[in-house]
Amino acid sequence: AVSTTSGGGSEAFRQAVVNTLERRLFYIPSFKIYRGVAGLYDYGPPGCAVKSNVLAFWRQHFVLEEGMLEVDCPCVTPEVVLKASGHVDKFTDLMVKDEKTGTCYRADHLLKDHCKEKLEKDLTLPAEKAAEMKHVLAVLDDLSSEELGAKIKEYGITAPDTKNPLSDPYPFNLMFQTSIGPSGLLPGYMRPETAQGIFVNFKDLYYYNGNKLPFAAAQIGQAFRNEISPRQGLLRVREFTLAEIEHFVDPEDKAHPKFSDVASLEFLMFPREAQLGGEQARKIILGEAVSKGTVNNETLGYFIGRVYLFLAHLGIDKDRLRFRQHLPNEMAHYAADCWDAEIECSYGWIECVGIADRSAYDLRAHTDKSGVQLVAHEKFSEPREVEKLVITPSKKDLGLAFKASQKMVTEALEAMTEKEALDMKAALESKGEAEFQVCTLGKTVAINKKMVSISMVKKKEHQRVFTPSVIEPSFGIGRIIYCLFEHSFYTRPSKAEDEQLNVFRFPPLVAPIKCTVFPLVKIPKFEDVAKQIAKSLTAAGISHIIDITGTSIGKRYARTDEIGVPFAVTVDSTSTVTIHGQSTWADVMWRFPTHSVTANDDAADQN
Amino acid sequence: AVSTTSGGGSEAFRQAVVNTLERRLFYIPSFKIYRGVAGLYDYGPPGCAVKSNVLAFWRQHFVLEEGMLEVDCPCVTPEVVLKASGHVDKFTDLMVKDEKTGTCYRADHLLKDHCKEKLEKDLTLPAEKAAEMKHVLAVLDDLSSEELGAKIKEYGITAPDTKNPLSDPYPFNLMFQTSIGPSGLLPGYMRPETAQGIFVNFKDLYYYNGNKLPFAAAQIGQAFRNEISPRQGLLRVREFTLAEIEHFVDPEDKAHPKFSDVASLEFLMFPREAQLGGEQARKIILGEAVSKGTVNNETLGYFIGRVYLFLAHLGIDKDRLRFRQHLPNEMAHYAADCWDAEIECSYGWIECVGIADRSAYDLRAHTDKSGVQLVAHEKFSEPREVEKLVITPSKKDLGLAFKASQKMVTEALEAMTEKEALDMKAALESKGEAEFQVCTLGKTVAINKKMVSISMVKKKEHQRVFTPSVIEPSFGIGRIIYCLFEHSFYTRPSKAEDEQLNVFRFPPLVAPIKCTVFPLVKIPKFEDVAKQIAKSLTAAGISHIIDITGTSIGKRYARTDEIGVPFAVTVDSTSTVTIHGQSTWADVMWRFPTHSVTANDDAADQN
Predict the structure, then answer these.
(1) Is A22 exposed, middle or buried, given 0-12, 13-18 or 19+ CB atoms closer than 10 A?
(2) In angstroms, what separates the C-alpha of A64 from chain B's closest C-alpha?
């Protein structure tokens, strides 16, 4: 009796979903009575319940199952932390301003809209020009500020609302800025991600974990991005909930003990080569993707598998879920590999989870800025003998030879790589002298045997000190939920076939309300039983609604279908109920002991 | 075997608690590697788990049990909303500045510290001066900016760090300010409370509830206060989690159908009269407090009772929990009544939950500012005949008589109360003329029969339209958790009696980790069983740690006691375990079927 409505086109489908979501208060545009603020949404009662359920399951699936260390850090963050992480300098979008009104636009959006419209509507567009615009769309994310500005000028793009000329593009930092304390001297930002709170705590968390690797820390919390002009409704918002995992691992050993648990999973993957070769995403067995090196390492692969299981469990359609590998130009220079879990919805394929091997970048950045060593130690069971290069410049002899330049020559000698030092050692031994380029002086100097001693010394080391790599799965909870809504939405004809009814069919895990309870007929005896059952459900922690309005059964189902209630309990008599399941549409008659319908009895447990 | 350590003085006790909390990472000063930021703390792994548990119980106890509508609104809030609520103008503390260095201090803190120190340490202080300073301390919260400034001058108080002179006190707004969007033209703030998000949604929520009162909405989320100089460690912070309930009710009927469920509860209450009479808080039966009018109404009383049950269930010591009524000078002018749940800890009695009847203030404020009517309707079963006063000024006659002042006279006439209007009607009928005071003109004018017609008209009304009252229980989650930590903390001597061990004894509901699993002796067969049990616990969603380090049983208990693990499972053989409960200190031997230690079997359920 259920039919999907993907026939009406994705715009119409989206409108039907969003209408239902807003009418049933899954979402409310924030501060609506004040005409709202772009990019801010409230979760109303059913939306809020779905979010709670998703987060509770996330905690079970990741934090509890993997023994992760969950932390909870503030949103207000002092500038120094985000300076170290690179956000103060680089977390920007390019913006252009209407030169007369001052209205701001994202430069890439304007260029994208212009090209798309030309390609779709301008029938006179020469083939050459069309090809060029297609190319612009393909490389849009890689264009520099200058290139974007040049294209905007070349195409004569003006402000969409006024047709006024536009300024050159310039970077706008996407963090909400504020000031901490009353002095105005301590700038701060609302965090753009939760990860930094974990990185700065690495030392304590490593200690908490018994100074052992690997371990993972996790955080769920609000993050903020002051978007220039939010679009795509619920997908691009200015405040959102992130759930992030930072899994710290020895860079020399990224094997994962539980990889075999996920190795046989098979799902849509879209490796770099397939993208560059113009192919489609295809089903790949995860174990093979790792063994063939498509996925960089087992730990990264393990998390890809766990993310897949998480999303599938929530009710994301497996055929509209793919893992897409970042292309080289998308990835930060320090990243070893990166895969996005993308979910297809009416807006296209949307990045909902990013799973990146960020190598040692973040811990090194905070070590440099704070001066606190964020490192791990591997104690050797027995001390190991290692050869170490020792360079000892003789300041006295260097001073006699280079006078005021002595310091720069000394520093340059100390900074030699192992190869440079060994080459110099060989030259000094064979010729007694060596040419040496001192960059800071901008010239080559002659070094003799007296000036420096170079040797390889054998040392015993008791441990290895290193900066761990971090593998980061980062979940945009709001995006996942929105895609879940689209994937759970159907319409079905009403009984009289005179209208289409909206249905959300959620897995019980996700459903905002698990159960409706209503008497078959509106008589006090049945109502009492319904109330007793409701009480039992409450005590068992099962969300439900009790409907004693006496409207028709069909109408009641329609009403609860619209908010995705998976079960209904109909009180047929004082001793039996019928349990109706949304997903099977089968009814089960169930006799319960009237004398024991209390808070703690079986009635509650078995529902 | 357990002894409390309240002997060492509250400072020493607090130090012991805080040391344990920080060493075991319940809390971490945020951004510690950058020397931190005053008033910002992270929850580390066990603290974060406690917080999750408290919030989950809050949802069960309030949202689910009472069928509340939970919402989730953004922290970023546009100025207009907080202008309407009064926060932009009035959410301030008085601040003084060191006139040379610019360092800021809270004016009342400096005055308080000065008086306290004088009273404690200055043995030469004349009795008269001492009495005056005691009075200053008593009325500290009521002092105006001018009075505070005068006292600071009079006592010669200088900047604590530099002894430099101080500025006059001036108000500092405690909200973190930011700017929404790229234009810089839309000022916003990080919300200082979650309540406003609910008020602005009243209309939608009322509709969601079938246009029926009463109903409650709830919200859990971050709130922000940019404190001038945070003190009291974990109790006064700049970012914190609030859980707030807004219960909307007909102002003419504040009865509560479930009040009888809590009426017989008896606990410490501290009514206004007892405070003013210099008495102590005393045990009062809630039902009597409401029937005698000590508590303003049943709904307020119901929430006081539910808050009591909530806190007691969490493990707050009932003897260190009291409900203190606000004194008239503490309460906003619009509030009908207000009670704080105060918990005693080493800092004294701390306000942890505020339960206020805020009457119609908030909804009216947003109605006025937004122009959207935030009202409820009571449909009458039959239309009711009501008498309504109708005042119709004759603008023409008023204009002839008062020329340019016509508008002000007209408005004053229309604004008359029923009594004033009826008095004027009587005067006009008997004498043909009446004296009338027009405030806006600052004088009395003569009104005659032609200028205004006043009559009582009978009208049929089909419904009553009114602004609901709101009863608001507001929970400072961080403060509750901190007090809970103090109330759960003990020390006990080690077995050798050579040291004091730290113990948190949490109710299982709150405990961050529910269970430790360890083999009695370190042999592979027992370790395998321990791992099987751990797997079952994970599948059942029960947090636990598995300890196969092989250290002594006593040391393992000490380690888990310090993070308040309530249960331990010791693997004695391949077929039996001993379950050890922290609160009873009794051991239970329990035989389990080895063949069925799997994810779904009894082993998990019964733990």
Answers:
(1) middle
(2) 6
Helix (H, G, I), strand (E, B) or coil at B124: coil
Higher pLDDT, A387 or A376: A376
Instruction: Kindly indicate the confidence band of residue A583, based on its pLDDT and cuts at 50, 70 and 90.
Output: low
CA distance A183 to chain B (A): 7
CB of A222 within 8 Å of any CB in chain B?
A: yes
Three-state secondary structure call for residue B105? strand
Per-residue confidence band for B600, with pLDDT thresholds at 50, 70 and 90 = very low
Give phi and psi for A213, each to the nearest 5: -110, 160
Q: Which of residues 190-219 of A touch B (CB under 8 A)?
A: 190, 197, 200-201, 203-205, 208
Candidate from B78, B95, B203 with C-beta closest to A31: B78
User: pTM of the full predicted structure?
Assistant: 0.87
Chain A partners within 8 Å of B65 (Cβ) = 538
Q: How close A367 gets to chain B, by Cα (Å)? A: 9
Mutate to test the interface with A, among B20, B22, B34, B246 (most CBs of A within 10 A): B34
pLDDT score of A319: 97
- φ/ψ region of A369 (left if φ > 0, alpha if ψ in -120 to 50, else beta) reads alpha
Burial class (CB in 10 A: 0-12, 13-18, 19+), A279: exposed
* Residues pairing with B578 in the sheet: B570, B589
Q: Residue B113 belongs to what H/E stretch?
A: helix B107-121
Per-residue tokens: B527: 């370790």
What's the 3-state SS for A287-317? HHHHHCCCCCCHHHHHHHHHHHHHHHHHCCC
For A534-546, how does the pLDDT look when each residue is reduced to its tens digit (9 = 90+)? 999 999 999 999 9
Maximum mean pLDDT: which of A96-110, B423-437, B478-492, B550-564: B478-492
Q: Who contacts B276 (Cβ-Cβ below 8 Å, separation ≥6)?
A: B327
Is the CB of residue A520 less than 8 Å from the CB of residue A554? no
Q: What is the pLDDT of residues A226-257, one digit of tens each?
A: 999 888 888 999 999 999 999 999 999 999 99
B359: which residues sit within 8 A by CB, 6+ positions away? B251, B334, B335, B336, B469, B470
When pLDDT is averaged across residues B122-138 and rounded to a whole number, the result is: 89
**Nearby residues of A538 by Cβ (< 8 Å), 6 or more positions away:** A544, A599, B64, B65
Q: Mark B179-203 as b/e (b = at least 16 C-beta within 10 Å).
A: bbbbeeeeebbbbbbbbbbbbbbbb
Q: Which of residues 356-385 of A touch B (CB under 8 A)?
A: 366, 369-370, 372, 374
Q: Which of residues 155-194 of B touch A (CB under 8 A)?
A: 172, 176-183, 186, 188, 190
The Cα A231–Cα A208 span in angstroms is 43
Peptide bond just before B257 cis, omega within 30 deg? no
CB-based contact A200 B52, cutoff 8 Å: no
Between residues 61 and 80 of chain A, which touch chain B (CB distance below 8 Å)? 64-65, 69-78, 80
ipTM of the complex in this document? 0.86
Provide the pLDDT confidence category of residue B599 given band limits of 50, 70 and 90: very low
CB A290 within 8 A of CB A263: yes
The beta strand positions in B333-372, using DSSP E, are 337-345, 348-357
Task: Indicate yes or no: CB of B204 within 8 angstroms of CB of A104.
Answer: no
Q: Which two tokens stand for residue B410?
A: 């007209």
Percentage with pLDDT > 90 across chain B: 67
Q: Which of residues 444-473 of B touch A (CB under 8 A)?
A: none
B576 touches chain A (CB under 8 A): no
- Among A30, A200, A538, the residue with its CB nearest the CB of B33 is A200
What is the Cα–Cα distance from A322 to A301, expressed in whole angstroms? Answer: 14
Best A22, A32, A54, A72 member to test B by mutation, with max B CBs in 10 Å, is A72
